[in-house]
Amino acid sequence: MHLPGYSQITFWQVRKKGIKMNSCELVAYVSSLACVISKCSSREEMEILSAVLVQLGETLHMMLVHEENSSAGDRSTQDCRKERQNDRRTDL
To answer: Which domain holds residue 51?
Structure first.
C-alpha cells in the first residue's frame, strides 16, 4: 500500500534490514496504513479486518502470557523462535 508522498518501504523490509522504528515512527506507520486501508476498502471489509486483527493481537498476547507463566514453556514455540532467529542471521 502506498500513500502519495510517502516511501513505499514496508514495515517488514525495515525490520529485515535491522532498522528499528521508534514508538512515534511506528504510530505514524500504523496510522498511515489505516488511512490507506480506509480509502481502499468498504466498510464491511474494514469491520472484518479490524475484528481479525483484534483477535490476532489478543491471541498473540495470550500465547505470550501463557509462555511466561508455564514452568517449561512450549518446546515447539521455542524451537520455532530459534529457527526464525537462525533465518534472520542468514538473511543479513
So the answer is: 42-92
Mean pLDDT per 10-residue interval, the chain, length 92 residues = 53 70 86 92 96 96 91 63 74 62
- Per residue, the 3-state secondary structure of 26-80, as one string, reads HHHHHHHHHHHHHHHCCHHHHHHHHHHHHHHHHHHHHHHHHHHHCCCCCHHHHHH
Domain count, the chain: 2
Domain check: are 5 and 34 in the same one? yes
Are 64 and 77 in a shared domain? yes
pTM: 0.56
